[in-house]
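Morning run. Coffee first, then this:
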Amino acid sequence: MDRNDVTKKIISAKVKNKMTWADIASKIGCSKEWTTAAMLGQMTLNLTQATVAKDLFDLTDEETAWLQIVPYKGSLPTLVPTDPLIYRWYEIVSVYGTTIKELIHEEFGDGIMSAINFSMDIQREADPKGDQVNVVLSGKFLPYKSY
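And here it is:
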């Protein structure tokens, strides 16, 4: 058994029990973004959070222990890009890509999100032309220096 097995069990229970990430997050006590990342194997839960997850997903003691171990972050099975700018985006997508996909599909259904409206605080924004995905990602810009 490893963390990937626990993630599969969590997703299976979520689907079977018709749970939403927001509902799960409210029980865990954290944001839906962080909770989704945690349930998908990208974050470490503390004992209290792991105990709630154990009850929610009917996990064994061993599976619950896996939730409390620092994960190997990055879940996309692709080659790592070498361009420094693209690599930073790959790093973000590698850790949070599955979270973004899960939350958008849960909220809006099957489809894609424009990279123009990208963020980790994912909210529905009403618009008379059609609801928008409002996502806010904030990161530090690191410029190259002349040498």
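DSSP finds six helices and two strands in the chain. Good start to the day.
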